[in-house]
Amino acid sequence: MIKRRVHVAAAAIFSDDGQEVLLARRPSTVDQGGLWEFPGGKLAPYETGFVALQRELYEELGLTIDRAQPLIRVHHEYPDKHILLDVWQVGDFSGEPYGREGQAVRWVKLDELFNYPFPAANLPILRAVMLPTEYLISAEEADDGVFLNKLERALQEDGLRLVQLRAKTLDHEDYVQRAEQALALCRRFSARLLLNGEPELLKLVDADGIHLTSDRLMTLDRRPIVQGKWLSASTHNAQQLDHAAHIGCDFVTLSPLRTTPTHPDATPLGWHDFQQLVEPAGMPVFALGGMTRHDANHARAVGAQGIASIRDFWQ
Ligand SMILES: Nc1nc2c([nH]c(=O)n2[C@@H]2O[C@H](COP(=O)(O)OP(=O)(O)OP(=O)(O)O)[C@@H](O)[C@H]2O)c(=O)[nH]1
Ligand SMILES: [Mg+2]
Question: What range(s) does the Nudix hydrolase domain occupy (predicted)?
Fold first, then answer.
């Protein structure tokens, strides 16, 4: 039997403060009935994703969508069909949402999303919705005071909320000490801190997660930390992306998009190859390598969650 291919446009609509997202409950009588979903539906013949999104959101919720940006595309095999969930982050809309088909509709806090039952395809969407568009990777910094000043500037002035502590030149003891200081600072700004290092670090410092180097990623055959923490990894090719999905990483960086002074010999992917690699990834992917915040919209347009950078944020 040839499986049906179903292309669905769905919306992530955030409240003004960015802390809540709009969910709808599928009527109990339909496929996946009773589960919560991001509102949307199937593309009609010849429709583009965005046009389908506009039509479905009007039909289902009475909303007029003026502007939206790609958030994530998720391919998923259900027993009876191959589905592509084409999820858009809605920028501007008008109208007050209500369930025009009698379905329940609810604003849900991001940290309560995991209390809701979703279809099996939705896990990557939940991760994408919970993550920002910018991922700060800290630079090597010999002095703790200078490090903390630069981190505080990035949190305060650039509003960064996702931070990776990368410090290859510190020994274990100094790394742990810096991680504790960085964590205290990140907590003040409600930013998440991931430790670039061995998963056991989380037993010493109660940070929000671990970032794996691509070498460490490839040595693991299962997820090394609990589900409540974030697991990210560095990837550079399809094999590493597959492995990241296999062990249950929550998101990854994919690099180098451009040539950078720190990695002059690495062959850059460029946007075209980057897009090809991201499409089947099944998790949020940050573009890394010569990226600045001005590249974030372009990265989104080719399927990325956003951009990761050291230089652009470390000043
Ligand atoms: N809208 C939406 N559909 C999802 C999500 N996750 C997910 O697996 N799906 C699946 O994608 C398909 C969406 O179809 P739908 O029933 O919403 O389509 P539709 O609005 O065009 O409805 P209709 O075909 O009854 O007119 C369903 O098989 C549904 O289970 C999600 O978060 N949002
Ligand atoms: Mg629908």
Answer: 4-131
107 φ, ψ (degrees, to nearest 5)? -80, 125
- Tokens 């998720």: give the residue: 74
Nearest protein Cα to ligand 1, atom 9: 119
User: Residue 152, class by beta-carbon neighbours within 10 Å (0-12 exposed, 13-18 middle, 19+ buried)?
Assistant: middle
Residue nearest atom 27 in ligand 1 by C-alpha distance: 31
- Residues lining ligand 1, CB < 6 A? 6, 8, 10, 30-32, 37-42, 56, 83, 85, 119, 121-122
Taking the centre of ligand 1 as the mean of its atom positions, its distance from the CA of residue 9, in whole angstroms, is 8
Taking the centre of ligand 2 as the mean of its atom positions, its distance from the CA of residue 126, in whole angstroms, is 18
Q: Domains in the chain, start-ordered, CATH in brackets?
A: 4-121 (3.90.79.10), 134-309 (3.20.20.70)
Which residue lies with its CA nearest to atom 16 of ligand 1? 41
Angstrom distance (rounded) from CA 123 to CA 309: 25
Burial of 264 (0-12, 13-18, 19+ CB in 10 A): exposed
Question: What is the chain's pLDDT, residue by residue, as a tens digit (315 residues)?
Answer: 789 999 999 999 999 999 999 999 998 888 888 999 999 999 999 999 999 999 999 999 999 999 999 999 999 999 999 999 999 999 999 999 999 999 999 999 999 999 999 999 999 999 999 999 999 999 999 999 999 999 999 999 999 999 999 999 999 999 999 999 999 999 999 999 999 999 999 999 999 999 999 999 999 999 999 999 999 999 999 999 999 999 999 999 999 999 888 788 889 999 999 999 999 999 999 999 999 999 999 999 999 999 999 999 999
